[in-house]
Structure formats: structure tokens, C-alpha cells
Amino acid sequence: MTSTVVADVVHVTRRFGRFTALDDVTLQVAEGEVFGLLGHNGAGKTTLLRVLNGLLETNGGAVTLLGMDPIRDGKRLRRRTGVLTEYPALAELLSAHENLAIYASIHGMTPDDIARNTHEILALLGLAGREDEPVRGFSAGLKQRVALARALVHKPDVLMLDEPTTNMDPVAAKDVRTLIHRIARAEGRTVILSTHNLAEASELCDRVAIIRQGQIIAIGSPNELAQRFAAGVTVSIEVGAGQADRAAKALPSPIMVEVINGRTLRVANADQDVPAIVRKLVEAGHDVHAVTPHQPTLEDVYLQLHDGESLS
Amino acid sequence: MSRTTAPDAHAPDTDKRDSGLNWHAIGAIVRKDVTTVLRNKGVRTPLLVAPVIILIALPAFLVLGGELLAASGQVPVDAQGQTPFDRLAGPTATETTGIDVNAPGGWERFVLEVFIAPLYLLVPLMVATVIAADSFAGERERRTLEALLHTPTSDEELLVAKVLAAWLPAVTIGVGGFVVYSVVANVVAWPEFGRIFFPTLTWVLLGLWVTPGVAALGLGTMVIVSSRVDSLQAAHQIGSLIVLPVILLLIVQVSGTLLFNPVRVAGLGLLLWVSALLVLRIAAQHFRREQLAVRM
User: Quick check: bond before B199 cis, omega within 30?
Assistant: First the structure.
């Protein structure tokens, strides 16, 4: 199956003085794909979004988005992109409707389209009835929703979201994730999502690129990455109360076992060995109450690739 | 994944908007900034208080204050019927301004035509610098600038919009202040003259020719200042130095070193406009998306 490349980033480098924010970055994003940029704060995710939308030039390499050069064709390109910035960046003294209407107007929409689109998108994001209130009085989560609505109001072909669910409560965050999913799936829009919320990336993204110090260290679907980078299946084994230490000693040395608490063991790389492990525990006189396998997740991959570095 | 790129389906209807300035987008940004200023009490209040003090309270006090206080017995009246207010200018003012402040109506003419003139220039200058600082440095400090940078506007359109958003209110308040001041001047001097004597040609030139120029120069300076500082407070502090030349103008005007007359005011206006255009040209070189994005 062939797919159209919407974003094509080839060996891109961007430096700020002596600091290299993007270091030889290469990636492609297909039309209709939800593509995640995963990394710590300062890894280069926001810089890449700014490069893609023509705010920052590169020091090397080539970038095209929607077939256009972001610097040379920036104005034309930005008419087809919508960006949710890391901070809501709203005019606080203006109402939600006014914030959207101003940006829709900048995008060249007609007054009728502005009225219809702002009403629709605000209702979709649960802001109906609060359209005319100044956003200054909104909670951080509501402001984020207005900012998301602003990014969507002109129905962009490519949506770039920089930490879209930051500051949102779990329900609002779930709503936004549902909306992003709908935009990408039902409406066929391309979404480039920057986040360090690994569960969010797993839920939403078709593919992710893990960025560390400006370099892409892994790229692929969450499942592919889990297969490629994470340790195999981990198994939690529940034994009788207070038996965990003795049970761990009953297992032969090649088996990597960790005592979690008095009655729980965690065995790494246990894909093929679960029946043998359980048999050895039973033979050693331990009661086995439960065996729970854990498939590797994107979080496991991420943590392994970052070697336990703090997200901040 | 193939290496084909997405077709630019919007291209045909956007070519026109991409050549030349997109005044529709500029108008939207101006509306946003002006509405924000009008709704911001902290910005709006000083913008209205200063003109009221300079153009209404001060001339009324200087012209009517002496008589009112004398009538109430609060200040002494000498043998010639003069109050201390009448002696403020003294004989030097008479020599330098050509207005005999001791003659009937002389004090009123000195205050309303000469003394207030440089102070009046503070009004558009203050409005332009306050709004420009808020619009450039303030927007960056509030982290709201990035959303604008992601819009389909060119650097030139963003600059024009930001400049107009400060210039239009400054000129509106400046010209509006001139009209209000004209009414105030005629009202407070009516007991002395009994006729409409204001505005003079000098003041018409000040109100309609110098005001837009001084506002443009002030905001052009603030664009440069704002591009080099990191906070709104720093922009305000450096921007406040812009009033110093006007204070100098007040001193040379009142001391009679360089009196305003129609020719000199027309020349002053020309000088301000040329300076403003040069400063705005330099400001345009500092107002680049790339540079703004780097500082975010």
C-alpha cells in the first residue's frame, strides 16, 4: 500500500548558539497518520514543530510539509496547518468565541463560516454556553480546550499538538484524546503530537519517534518498538503470604526475579518459561495463587531507552 | 511509505492573498489588540487619566485657579489685581514669547497656546509607547505571541498589524484630545476673550500633523526596545525615557529659546515623520519570525 507523505524531514539539524536542539533528524509522516514525538522536556519536540511550521529555519537538512518549504512557502503552508502551542496563548480578556473568531478571520474565513465553525467546535469541546465568557475566568483545562478549538477552527489538513492534554483533568483529557482520534480517523487529518504522556501516545499514535537530546533514537509503531526494544514478557507471580523471599531463592539463577512484596515476585523475560517456573515453585512447596503476564509497553521502551532519566 | 508529497489543493485560491499585504488578517490582529487594550483596566486607565490631567485639569487650573482661589480668599491679590498665578510667567515670558502676560488675556494665551503645547505631545507619545510595550514585550511575556506566529501571516503583516494596533489608538486619543482641548481652552478663556480664539494654526498643525508623527516615532522606538528586552517592565522602564525629548521641548518652549510657530511646528512634524520612518525601518529588521521564535 502506498501512502502520501505529508511531512518529510531529512537530516535536519537546528542549533541555538552552541546548543544543538535537533541533531540529524530524519522522519516521514503519512497522510492521516497520528504521529507522536516522545521525549523529555527540552528534547527538541517543540523545536521540530516550529521548524515544520516555518517559525524556525534549519542549520542543515531539508523539510517539506504538505509539499511546501516551510520557510519559503510559510504563509501558504500555515493556512493549512493548525497548531496547539505548549501554552494556551489566548487573549485572556476576550471571550472563547472572540478568540476563535479572530484567528478564523486571520485564516480568511467568511463571517458565516466563522459563526458556524466556532459554534460547532466549541460545542464539540464541551464549551457550549460559555462561548461569550472571557477566557480569563476559565480553568487551565478549559483554556487548553479553547486553544485546541482555535487550532481546529479553520479545519486544517495537518494538526500539530504540543502537549495537548497538559493541565487537563482526566475527563477533559479523555475527551480531547477522543476528539484527536476522531479528527484523525473520521476526518482523515494528519496529526503530529508532541507529548511526554506515554499512555496518551500509546492510545493515540500510529507511530512514534522517541527523541533524546535532539536525536531520534527510535521510531515505529508502539507495538513494534515494544517488540524491538523492551525486555520480553514480564510475569507477576503471587505466592503465599510471606513466601516471596524463599520462593525467589527456589528459582534457578538464570531466571531474573525481583521480590516486589511479601507475596509477589516479578520475573523478567518469562515468555517461554512460565510453566517451568510455576512447576519449580510448586515443587519447592510454595502455593501459587496467581500468575499475571505483562506485555511490554511504550513506557517500558521509553524508560529503557532513557535509562531511568527523569522526565523533567 | 512512498515519497510522494501531498498536493497543494488550496494553492489556486490563495495565490492572491499571498502576494502583497493581507489587510483582512492585519485588521483581525488590530481588532484583537485594540479590544484587549480597551478591556484591560490597568492599561486603559492611565491612557485616559493622563490626557484628562494634561488637557483638561491642568489648563483649567492654571487659567481659572488664580481667580477662583482669590475669590475664595485663599491666595492674596496685589494692588494691580494680580494673583501669584499671574506672576508665574513673569517678565521673561513676556520677552521670550512675545505674549504680554500682564495684558488682558495674556496669561490665558501664554498658558493655553504656549505652555501646554509640549505637554500635549506627551499624550500620543505615552499612548503609543504603553500600547506598543504591551503589544510586543507584553505579548511575549504572556506567551501569547507564538499563537500569532503560527498564523498564515508574513512578518511584514504581523509588524504592520502590531504597529497599527498601537498607532491608531494613539492618534485617535491624540486628535480627540486636541478637539477636547480646543473646547476646554475656549471655555476657560471665555470670560477673558468672549469669543472662540482656539485652535490657532500652530495648534492645528500640532494636532493633525505632529501627533501622528510623534506616535509613530514612539512606537517604532518601542518595537526596537521590546525586541531587546525580556519583560514588559523593562520595556516600560526603557520606554519611559522617550518622554525626555518632550520635556526638553517644554523647557526650550517656555524659556523662549525655540518658540512654536506654524513654520517651526510644520518643520518639527516633518523631522518627526522622517525619524519615525527611519526608526520603523530599523524596527522591521528586528521583527523577524525566526528571531521572535528563538526568544520564546
Answer: yes
